[in-house]
TrEMBL record:
This is Translocation and assembly module TamB C-terminal domain-containing protein. It comes from Candidatus Macondimonas diazotrophica. Residues 919-1246 form the Translocation and assembly module TamB C-terminal domain. One of its GO terms (biological process) is protein secretion. Keywords: Membrane, Transmembrane, Transmembrane helix. GO terms for cellular component: plasma membrane; TAM protein secretion complex. Pfam families: TamB (PF04357). It is found in: Membrane.
Amino acid sequence: MRWAWRIAAAVLAGLLFGLVALLLALWGLPNGPDRLARWLQPHSPIAFDYVRFEGPLRGPWRIEQLTVRSDRWDLAAEQIELAWHPAALLRGTLHVERLAVQQMRFRNEPPAEPEPPREATLPAPLRLPLAVHLDQFQLDDGCYQAGDAEPECVDGQITNLRLDGSAWAVDALALAHPRLQLSGRGNGEAAGRWPFSARLRAETEIPDWPLWTGEFALDGDLIEFGVAHAAAPPYAYQLAVRVSEPLGALRWQAEWMTEALRPHAFRTDVPEAVVLSGTIQANGTAQAADVEAALHADGAPEGPWDARLTGMVDAGSGRIDRLTLDAPIGRVRGQGQYVFSGADTDVLQADLSWEALRWPGTALDSPEGKLSISGQPTRYDLSLQARLAGAWAGGGQASIALAGEGNRQAFEFSRIEARNLLKGRLDGRGQVAWAPELTWDLALRGQGFDPGALDARWPGRLAFDASTRGQRDDAGLAAELQVDTVQGRLRGRAVQGRLALQGAGSEWTLEQLDVRSGEARMRATGRWGPQIAMQARLRVPDLADLWPGASGRAELDARADGPQDDPQVELEASAREVRMESLRVSVLDLSGSWGGKNEPLQADASIRQLEVGSNTVDSITLDLRGRPADHRLSFTVDRRDLALQLASAGGWTQERWVGRLTALSLRPPAGAPWQLDRPAPLQLSMRDAALEGLCLRASSQSLCADGRWSGAGWQAQLRLADLDLAPWRVLVGNEWTLAGTIGATVDARGDAERLAGTLSARADGVVVERRSPIASLPPERLLTIPELRLSGEATDDGLTAGLSGVPGKKGRLEAQLAMPGYTGRWRELSRLPVEGRMVLETDELAALTLLSPHLDQPQGRFSADLAWRGPWQAPVFSGGARLAGGSVDVPVAGLQLRDIALEASPTAGDQLQFAGQLTSGGGDLSLQGQLKLQAGQPQLLAQLKGRDVRVANTAEAEVWVSPDIQVGYAPAGLSVQGQLTVPQALLKPKELEGTVRPSSDEIIVGAAAEPEPETLAWNLDLRLILGDRVRFEGFGLKTDITGQLGLREGPGTLPVASGELVLDGRYRAYGQDLTIERGRILYTGVPLDSPGLDLRASREFQEQTVGVEVRGLLQQPDVKVFSAPLLPQSDALAYLVLGRPLNQASSDDSAAMNRAAAALGLAGGELLAQRIGGRLGVQDVEIRNSGDVATSELSFGRYLTPRLYISYGVGVFNAVSTLRTRYELSRRWTLRTESGVQSSIDAIYTLER
């Protein structure tokens, strides 16, 4: 046996020696791995092949055009490079330094039948015989394709991949997809519960939306893990997901949340101030989930929005348990369910209702409504019922009802009904189908429609019958529209109309269009297709028949015949003395004819005396002559202060107009005219345009321009040199004068997405003055700019701008702006950061008088040094602004405001702090506050404090105040609260002599008043304190006034007051001076014009005292004469008026006595007389006089017929009786008679304006 062991040992040693020799041979051979692969190729269970395998066994390797195939997948790689460290195998590690794969394609064929489900369990632990270290993996253009689907390709890179036992880690991962960029890192354990942790960052470009960037954090294991995700602004949301037992009884929870999502970043038609916040929560299993959402929107112009939803979804159905929307546009409620039971047996049920629904910017208001749908896709019922209010309902309420039955292909309306819609009625029927092609057949009938419900200028009553039918398929559109009749009255004019239109594909026929309104009529017929034959005629003897308030007359005749691409066209139109709102045209004539592409072309237009608002043009003319391939055009505009003349020559060739501007002249109101120095080539088409060498010159001034545009982009150059501003004051108004010169150079280029270019401009010696209304006074200089320079540049590397100048005589202006992130994409400007600084110093403040005409001679020194940095929409400001040594006069109030100082500086966030002070009349006033922007809306809080500040200094009023007031402003309104003390005032109003107060029943007729513009809602809570030096002198009253009032006012309420004012002085009445013994004006939470009165004024005569007491409300005071000791009323009145008893009065004193008696006594007598008349059944009973109490009479009156009124009067102090009659002949003519001491008859004509 020993020999056998020796033979076996020799063979084993030989084999080991041979293997070592083979490895040594392969190790050094440059194609060793290639030979080994070729040897293994026929023995491998997976087929593979390659074109080239380079490199020794120790590496590096290079494999070209590798293909690997199996039954269900195949792999191909254009090139693979590998570098490794074989010596690491001795340490039990496979160490790959670099693995690079280029143009890899992996295609997988899905199984013909799905694999039966298997019970999911934790994977078996991963136990590799060697540790694997991969320093760098590079994948260029790697694609995966499932079956025949489009392949998805990525570029990828992995850095430092480690597999040690069951532990794994990746230091860096990066994947680049055409729509997604992904990077991250992670680590974990491939054993036990398979724990893992990863951090990822992703970016993707969404068409027409901002760049999306998000971060993900994944932590957990295959039993339970969580995902936390946050998206960067402007998306600004967070997502948290928790998953339990993903390999078994799956359970999960998710919550999406945002606090400041701004929809304006995604849709520019949404206001910038709108901010969205809320949460969406969901939880469930692999079979079902519950969903709950709550969203809130702030900052919308109409107010906040709230939306909530709760529901459920499972494998067989989806259900919305509750849907609510509470918004300024109304309240919406809904619920529904969809059961997935099969393609044709699914069941749908949904209900949607609303209350107080309105759509901003329209006259559509629906107090309530409901939409219901139920059934199956093959047959469902739909109904809608709604009430409308507002203008569409004619000021009342209207109803709309729709009902019908539908399926997957069509819907048939069994009911189309509207009641009181525009005060009318609408009924209809029909059906609409969308499969196999779109078809429709609808008929509508309306009666009693009043367009005046929407616009009061168009009152009327209209009825119509209309129908339409048609279809759209592969052959195109075929349709008929028939309006059998429109008839009724509109703005008092008879209206009639008919329309018949039908066609298919490119052939359409207008069989009839005939519309009449009053005497105006329009008729048209014709055919549109490869051959055209169209005619139209309009006759308007009076434009008032077509438009409210218009006047004038107009006519139009038009005709087109021939091939569609080369028709013959004729047009004649005219108008005379046209007036339409702010438009006035004295004469308009238009004529034109075109006989075809190669026939003569002629057009003439003339307008004389055109007025648009305050702008007047004397004439406009246009003249076109020639043929399409060669024609001449001239155009002129003349007005008193400006004239324009333009001429061109050219023609159409291959859908392009090629020609030149042969003349261009612009005549300003003064100075040399601007003339085109040479013809400028011009080309125009739907695809591109070009203008070259356009130069206008006027003496040393010039304006030159070049430009090109095409679908690929545009470019433009503009050069303005030495423009004299003086002749162009017409642009700002004749009351202004301008002086100075400006120049500019612009070179810009861009396209629909990009903009780049440079700008430089200058202004020298600019002076702006306003002429004085008094011709002898010099003009007021408002602005002086000796020098101003502007520059800017926009490139792919950023945007910069600079401004420098000298405002005023000793001013300084320096400003810079930069957007280093600008890459030429102008649509991204609002999302880019900006930085800049502005320094301004000036002592020229005269322009402040433009803010108010009451300011005069403003002076001071203004300086500002502001810097900003941050997002374009919300940069952070630093620095400040200051006004020092300021003064201004307010002549209308007689004020001289001096020592004005104001400082403002931005603080952290979006706040601006400001403080200021001034003196007036020896008193000091200070101001402090802050202004901040929240969600793009300003909010102001300010405090005014002062002592003895003069606020009025005129002959009628001298007033000093000491305020301690807080003022707040927000978009919702203005609030004023605090205390206003008036320590000293002297009020001496002008006497209002000869005025007559209208009676309470007087009615003023005429045009309706303009509606008052909406004012800002405000809240007032102010305490007014009158000091001991407040005096009033006027209307016979000389008194000191003291006291306090609390003033309050809220939105939609009148101001009310509480408190009391005390009078202490004298009152002159009936020619006598009375001493005010007791004077109180009382407010008990009543409007300012309705105080209570408690006044007592008297006069002493030796041992006799007489006077007047006034009590009650200001509108209805109770006035009494008193005396002490007690006297008869006649004697007391004589003492009060004459200063002596009645028995000492003379005949000359009767007038004064009569006026006093009438004022004090007859008001009560009239009230008594009215009560007696009510008992006797007489309509009118009154005591009347003509200003003299001696003529007072008791009058009884009654209407005998609606037009005949008769009255009888009996003298109170004499035996005179008077009979009067009044008979209304018409609305304007009235006949009056009177018989008494004198008799008369009058015919009266009334003209109301």
